[in-house]
Write a structure and sequence with these properties.
The complex is a heterodimer of chains A (about 270) and B (about 775). Chain A has about 270 residues and is of the alpha/beta class. Chain A is about 40% helix and about 15% strand. Chain A is built from 11 helices and 9 strands. Chain A has helices at about 20-30, 45-55, 70-75, 90-95, 110-115, 160-165, 175-190, 190-205, 220-230, 235-245, 250-265, and strands at about 35, 60-65, 75-80, 85-90, 100-105, 125-130, 135, 145-150, 170. The radius of gyration of chain A is 21 Å and the shape is elongated. Chain B is α/β, with parallel strands linked by helices and about 775 residues long. In chain B, helix 7 (about 105-120) packs antiparallel against helix 8, helix 14 packs across helix 15 (about 260-280) and helix 16 (about 290-315) crosses helix 20 (about 375-390). Classes of the chains: A alpha/beta (about 270), B alpha/beta (about 775). The interface of A and B includes residues 158 and 253 of A.
């Protein structure tokens, strides 16, 4: 099976904020599974793409969701005119052919689903397909990466202790203002002035984390706002559409946040 | 219609019979009575008219006199016959109460005034509250009932019952022993009284903006502000400017002239300015030998310095503050005007002003712009300018001075007037906080069943009236350990109408425990997902149901129609759990723990935290508080029934619970069981939150009540209701004996109670 389609050819830009690249490379050298923790939109997915490109491995991404079952990961029998035929799931694909498998937002999946990764993440490095009674040993290049947003109040449910303890964790947070300004400038093509204003606005919204907002504005949101500004939308309207309105439905919080945003704009 | 014919056609019950008998003996009333009696006969069912007769008899029995009675007849005839009956009956009872305290003449006057009140208040709930307020007045200031009722239209000018209740509370509190003053107040001859009844229809209140301001300031500075309302002190003027005290920001409680967006804008501007002082300012200045005019000028420079710093970070604050800088050169050269002009000149670079002092101030401030972060420049420049302004010999009245522009704080918080700065500001803060607590307690809505309130010194010794003990809602058996049998109808349960407390007390306590909330929130989300159930033979799903596939394959090959439902899926489990929570409010819960809160406070906190979780989960639940005063007086307060929503009212009912009397656990458990019987749910739980052993004044051997409670829980279990005991204290005591070892949970440290209670709940809900 050719995983060419899963290869990343262009450099995904990633701005390193600490030693995360070194840790990931070291973990990959021993094929240790990695867990990326951090709030939404702070660059976890971009980091994995960057590392897959850096290590030259194909990247198979699975967005976990509540209805996801073990079959969605491992594979299932399909019906054909002649009977049934086995179809590998994305995880099995990565295990067989040596890709990095990235389970995005793993807490969204139910706990009975996530246990299928257990034998892959310890010394066994095998995937057991109970449906067709097959043990798939992992390819030497295979690595498992999961992302996990422990969020102050955002965990839909927690990971099982037995799942948590299998991973090397790398903690992500929103970058420092100067770095974040640079990222917004680069990704959104915004001027330094616009980008630094957006970062100041993000700081205001992050101040409200746990006081009415579950999460502050993410770097991703700032990039969206920056792009709207680039497309000619006035700053206040761009921020309203890309940050204030999406982030909360609570009228009072919205009104207070709007006032705080206005305080950041000249 | 003739009385005798009526009696023959309808069975006449006791009260009716008595009333008819009494009225036919009263020459001056009999005619009017017949009219109303016949009218009600047409409108009401016999049972309903009997209820009315009972209410009317209450009035007759307190010697209400013809004036009262005919006014009551008239009121009865004017009310909507069906919907109004409850109201009419309630009025009968309250009017009798008023009559008992204030006499027949006053009562007749109130009954007549009811017509005016109805015009103003319209809704019968508000009218009942008006009646209760009048009854409270009758109890505490009987001589004022008549004067006030004669001014009913004016007293209800605001058409808001809250304003009226506030007016009565203030009037009772304000006058103290000054009877003449009190009479004048309630006759609306007093200026304050007239202002009070006008209400604040046009103003804006700090309380309405509090949450907005909290969020706004938190967003700006990244830390939660401590905001307080600044009300007018006794006889003092209404505060017009914000004030900083230690780390507290106090904003005017009420802005009379503005509303809506304008008010919100002002509050935000004012709060942003004050919080900028706290976020960017330095330690307080020492007054030393500065003259008042210098102090005022230092304030202006410091304000400008702080604002310049804040606007460097948050440039948009300029547009928040700018609308208030309206001083102009042509305002004149009084000290006040020059100060306002200077404030504007330092704030607004485009403003032109060639007054010598203004220009000098601007020049000095610009020169110091390089070291804005240094608070000393305010002292230097302000001192210099104050000197200059002083030498121009303009009049400056420090006492009457009001800071301009209006959003700025009064500047007092920037100064250290005492020797030891830190200690002083802290004491200040504590004193303010204490004062605030007091005020809150006072401003509570009048307690419905508390006849005298604390203001009566004799209140404590008063005999318990029927009212206070509440309405009898049930009688339950109790186990007699000595004779080994159940005494039927032994415990009498009375429902006490809940009073309303300040919900913010509980809300702020909850807000302080962020981590607990987060933890409970997480448990909620985990529980909400429920246990998934495997569903077989589905029309669609994530997986083939091989048994179904085989059946379908066989059907195909035998030429039958195959069943297309060949998939397996999983669906979320269904939650079905109803919980009744019993809160022990006996006297012992008054005990104060190490952190200064009472046991009851901790109980309420824990219950509130859990209630939030249960609300989030959508589990039906009821909250009941219980205490007892002997077997014939087990008092139950419904904080929230299964039907009520858990809203702010429920929180304020929870906040109003007060410790009193003893713990008769068995009766409370039985009642919780009876309530749960009426709820349709797969699982039913009773959680009793108590601080110790069951006990009561009429039981000498505490084991009796333990044994009774044990029998109650066994009985509940037989009906499929699980009961759990959460016991606050160093040992579980008899709880294991009552609830069983597995179902008793001792909580040794009271701080852990909220968390432990919630954990218990989630543990139970998983089973």
């Amino acid at each position: 099976m050719n995983l060419e389609a899963y290869r990343i050819h262009d450099v995904p830009h990633y701005h390193s904020t600490a030693d995360e690249i070194a840790i990931f490379e070291a973990a990959y050298a021993s094929r240790l599974p990695v867990m990326l923790k951090g709030p939404t939109g702070c660059g976890k997915t971009r980091f994995v793409e960057h590392m897959a490109w850096r290590l030259g491995r194909p990247l198979i991404t699975v967005a976990a969701h509540e209805d996801m079952t073990a079959s969605d990961l491992a594979g299932r029998y399909l019906l054909t005119p002649d009977g049934t035929v086995w179809q590998d799931g994305p995880l099995t694909l990565a295990v067989r052919h040596g890709a990095i498998c990235y389970l995005d937002e793993i807490v969204e999946a139910r706990q009975d689903t996530t246990v299928v990764i257990h034998p892959l993440t310890d010394a066994r490095r095998t995937l057991f397909l109970d449906k067709c009674n097959e043990i798939v040993p992992a390819h030497k290049d295979f690595q498992l990466v999961v992302s996990y947003n422990p969020g102050y109040q955002n965990a839909v449910k927690d990971l099982k202790e037995s799942t948590k303890q299998r991973f090397v964790a790398i903690d992500f947070d929103y970058p420092a203002p100067a770095v974040e300004t640079e990222i917004v400038m680069r990704e959104a093509g915004a001027s330094k002035d616009v980008a630094s204003r957006l970062v100041a606005i993000a700081e205001r919204s992050r101040n409200l984390r746990g006081h009415g907002l579950e999460e502050g504005a993410s770097t991703r949101m700032l990039i969206h706002a920056g792009r709207l500004v680039g497309a000619g939308v006035p700053m206040a309207a761009a921020v309203n559409s890309s940050i204030v309105l999406p982030i909360t439905d609570d009228r009072e919080v919205r009104s207070a946040l709007s006032a705080a945003v206005a305080a950041c704009l000249p | 219609m003739n009385m005798d014919i009526m009696a023959a056609t309808q069975p006449v019950a006791d009260a009716s019979k008595r009333l008819i008998g009494l009225m036919s003996a009263r020459r001056n009333l009999v005619g009017a009575f017949h009219e109303i009696w016949d009218l009600l006969g047409l409108r009401l069912a016999p049972g309903e008219r009997e209820a009315w007769a009972k209410a009317a008899l209450q009035l007759v029995d307190v010697n209400a006199g013809p004036g009262c009675l005919s006014a009551y007849w008239r009121l009865s005839s004017e009310c909507d016959p069906r919907e109004g009956l409850d109201y009419v009956i309630e009025v009968g009872a309250i009017a009798a109460d008023i009559c008992r305290h204030a006499g027949a003449r006053a009562t007749a006057s109130v009954l007549k005034a009811e017509r005016d009140a109805r015009v103003r208040l319209v809704q019968s709930e508000a009218l009942v509250r008006w009646w209760r307020a009048m009854a409270r007045l009758a109890r505490e200031a009987p001589d004022c009932v008549e004067p006030l009722s004669q001014r009913t239209s004016d007293a209800l000018a605001s058409a808001s019952i809250e304003t009226f209740e506030q007016f009565v509370s203030v009037g009772l509190k304000k006058s103290g022993k000054d009877r003449a003053g009190r009479r004048a107040f309630f006759a609306l001859e007093d200026e304050i009284a007239r202002q009070l009844v006008q209400g604040d229809r046009n103003g804006a209140r700090f309380a309405d903006e509090e949450r907005d301001l909290n969020l706004f300031l938190t967003a700006l500075w990244g830390r939660e502000p401590k905001l307080r309302a600044l009300g007018s002190s006794e006889n003092g003027p209404r505060p017009r400017r914000a004030n900083i005290a230690g780390s507290l920001i106090r904003l005017p409680e009420h802005l009379p002239d503005v509303s809506g967006e304008t008010a919100r804008h002002f509050f935000r501007a004012s709060a942003a300015h004050a919080s900028a002082h706290l976020a960017l300012g330095g330690p307080p200045f020492i007054v030393g030998s500065l003259r008042p005019i210098q102090v005022a000028l230092v304030n202006i420079i410091e304000d400008a310095r702080i604002e310049a710093l804040a606007m460097e970070r948050l440039p948009g604050l300029r547009s928040l503050w700018a609308p208030y800088h309206v001083a102009q050169a042509r305002d004149g050269n009084t000290a006040e005007a020059i100060m306002a002009r200077l404030a504007r000149a330092l704030f607004d670079p485009a403003y032109k002003d060639d007054n010598g002092i203004v220009a000098k101030g601007r020049h000095l401030f610009e020169a110091a712009r390089g070291r804005l972060a240094d608070p000393d420049i305010s002292r230097e420049i302000g001192g210099l300018l104050g000197n200059d302004l002083g030498q121009t010999r303009v009049q400056f009245n420090a006492k009457a001075h009001v800071v301009e522009p209006a959003y700025r704080d009064d500047g007092m918080g920037l100064w250290d007037f005492a020797e030891d700065s830190r200690a002083a500001s802290e004491t200040h803060e504590i004193a303010i906080d204490a004062a605030r607590m007091e005020r809150r307690e006072e401003s509570d809505a009048p307690r419905q069943n508390d006849p005298s309130g604390e203001s009566h010194a004799s209140g404590r010794a008063k005999p318990v009236t029927n009212d206070e003990r509440g309405i009898v809602i049930a009688r339950y058996p109790e186990w007699d350990r000595a004779s080994g049998l159940e005494r039927q109808d032994w415990a009498t349960l009375r429902e006490l109408a809940p009073s309303l407390g300040d919900p913010r007390r509980i809300e702020s306590a909850l807000a302080e425990t962020g981590s607990l909330r987060a933890r409970i929130g997480q448990l909620v989300r985990r529980a909400r997902v429920g246990r998934p159930e495997r569903l077989k033979r589905q029309a669609d799903g994530h997986d083939l149901d091989f048994d179904a596939v085989l059946d379908a394959g066989i059907a195909l090959r035998t030429g039958d129609l195959p069943d297309p439902r060949i998939f397996r899926s999983s669906g979320p489990g269904v939650r079905s759990m109803a919980v009744a929570i019993l809160i022990d409010v006996s006297e012992s819960t008054r005990d104060v723990t190490e952190n200064g809160n009472s046991v009851l406070d901790a109980e309420c906190m824990a219950v509130a935290a859990l209630a939030e979780a249960m609300k989030a989960l959508g589990d039906p639940f009821a909250l009941m508080a219980f205490a007892s005063n002997g077997h014939d007086d087990v008092r139950l307060t419904q904080v929230k029934t299964f039907k009520d929503a858990y809203d702010r009212d429920a929180v304020s009912r929870l906040a109003a619970l007060k410790p009193a009397l003893s713990t008769r656990l068995g009766a409370a458990l039985r009642h919780a069981g009876a309530v749960l019987d009426g709820v349709a749910s797969y699982r039913k739980l009773v959680i009793a939150l108590t601080d110790g052993e069951p006990s009561d004044i009429d039981v000498h051997d505490p084991l009796d009540l333990v044994e009774d409670a044990r029998r109650a829980t066994i009985n509940l279990r037989g009906r499929g209701i699980d009961s759990f005991g959460v016991v606050v204290g160093s040992s579980a005591g008899s709880a294991p004996a009552i609830f069983g070892r597995a179902n008793a949970m001792p909580v040794r440290r009271i701080e852990e109670l909220p968390q432990r209670l919630s954990e218990l709940y989630f543990r139970l809900s998983r089973r």
